[in-house]
Amino acid sequence: AQSVTQLDSHVSVSEGTPVLLRCNYSSSYSPSLFWYVQHPNKGLQLLLKYTSAATLVKGINGFEAEFKKSETSFHLTKPSAHMSDAAEYFCVVTPFGNEKLTFGTGTRLTIIP
Amino acid sequence: DVKVTQSSRYLVKRTGEKVFLECVQDMDHENMFWYRQDPGLGLRLIYFSYDVKMKEKGDIPEGYSVSREKKERFSLILESASTNQTSMYLCASSSDPREQYFGPGTRLTVT
Questions:
Q1: A contacts of B41 (beta carbons < 8 Å)
Q2: Cβ(B93)–Cβ(B101) under 8 Å?
Q3: A82 or A29, higher pLDDT
Q4: For chain B, what is the largest distance between any 2 Cα atoms, rounded to a whole number of angstroms?
Q5: CA–CA separation, B109 vs B12, rounded Å?
Q6: Quick one: closest CA in A to B95, which residue?
Q7: Which candidate from B41, B48, B90 shows the least CB-CB separation from A105?
């Protein structure tokens, strides 16, 4: 069985400060991991993905995530938050070779001006 | 750019009505998916399809059915809508099922 746990349902940071959104995963097989973002009243957009290549993955809009097998984590970071980063973020896992995605419950990111 | 469109952004239906949610993609993707999104629960897979006329149950198929008569179109059907089906419904398509492209969603309210 596979699952992801997003450790914070809501994160608030000031504009210009670092962002950290935490995700732990559980998977019986070598997983693929993703972060999706959902802006208000918009569909989900793929932010970045890990598929067993480099453990540090760079995505769009300055976000990156590091796959740490020993910690079963895939945390999302950004050095400096921008107002446009305010959105809901979903961590997603699927076992390698499997097609079904399992979504976390989401983390709502608020940016304080 | 991949475009996934959903027939309605907002829909209000009465309990017991038959409801059709339509999804169309323009990138000739083989795979299409229906999810529902509820606060605190993330996205849960209802049904998916790998090809025309093929369908597979997801994690929460009860109370739903689907139809895929053409490659670009995937319909979600609520045979008899109930209040616990009030939710945001998201359609997605992909060529690689692990990288899915989502539509804007349909917010369905059943009264």
A1: 105
A2: yes
A3: A82
A4: 38
A5: 5
A6: A99
A7: B41
Q: Count of alpha carbons within 13 Å of A56, Cβ hemisphere only? A: 3
Report yes or no: B43 at the A interface, CB cutoff 8 Å.
yes
Q: How confident is the model at residue B40 (pLDDT cuts 50, 70, 90)?
A: confident
Query: Would you state the structure tokens that stand for residue B2, as one six-digit string?
Result: 């991949």
Does A94 lie at the interface with B, CB-CB under 8 angstroms? Answer: yes
Q: Which of A44, A99, A100 sits opposite B90 (nearest CB)?
A: A44
C-alpha separations of A16 from A21, A72, A80 in Å: 16, 29, 4
Q: Say whether A113 sits in a helix, a strand or coil.
A: coil
Give the tokens for residue A18: 């670092």
- Whether A75 shows a pLDDT value over 70: the answer reads yes
Query: For residues A38 and B99, what is the distance between their CA atoms, to the nearest angstrom?
Result: 15
Q: In chain A, what percentage of residues exceed pLDDT 90?
A: 70
Report CB contact under 8 Å: A105, B42.
yes
Range in A24-33, A85-94, B19-28 the model is least confident about: A24-33
Which pLDDT band, with edges at 50, 70 and 90, does A29 fall under? confident
